[in-house]
Amino acid sequence: MAPFFFTVFLLLLGCLLPDKALAFQPHAYSGLYIHQFAHFFLIVSLFFFAKKARRTRLASLKAWQYIIAGTWLLMLWSATTMMGHFLDVDLSEEVLFLPPGANIPLLRLAGWQEVLYYLLKLDHLIAVPAVFLFYRGLKLLRKNQAPPSPPGQDHL
Fold it and tell me: Helix or strand or coil: residue 96?
């Protein structure tokens, strides 16, 4: 039990005394291939999960319909993120420029790749609904599995 508390203490201490975040790596590195493979593996895994769930009797339940829909959206999110990572490597540094007197760089849209890249950067518009669908499905499953309340008592 002591090693657990010591570990928690060290983690809290690390949160209270932050320094440089040295763990961050941009995607323009050799690990990009592994990262892209992880996206691909996620897509394949979710595909087989969705197909298997569709073939079971669970697919008729509303909760599982939400979960399966969330799975398809998460596959779409992973595919768009993969494309964004590929475009990220190809973008030149001249796309961003800092006008005189400005603090925030501006974006120069030179072609379709820059436009597509920044549209794909809006991946949260896919990821958030996917997670919400998972949440909604799990909430319905939990509600349906809750024990019935005794007669005469209101269920909160």
Answer: strand
Q: Which residue has the tokens 């999960």?
A: 49
Distance CA 43, CA 82 (A): 10
State pTM to two decimals. 0.69
Output 155 or 107, whichever has higher pLDDT: 107
**Residue 37 CB contacts under 8 Å (≥ 6 apart), including other chains:** none
Distances (CA, A) of 48 to 19, 77, 123, 144: 42, 16, 23, 26
Annotated domain spans of the chain = 30-144
Higher per-residue confidence, 95 vs 43: 43
- Residue 19, helix vs strand vs coil: coil
Give 106-126 pLDDT, tens digit per residue: 777 878 888 888 888 888 999
CB neighbour list of residue 35: distance below 8 Å, 6 or more residues apart: 27, 85
Better-predicted residue by pLDDT, 132 or 118: 132
**Structure letter (DSSP) for residue 56:** S
Q: Which residue has the tokens 């039990």?
A: 1
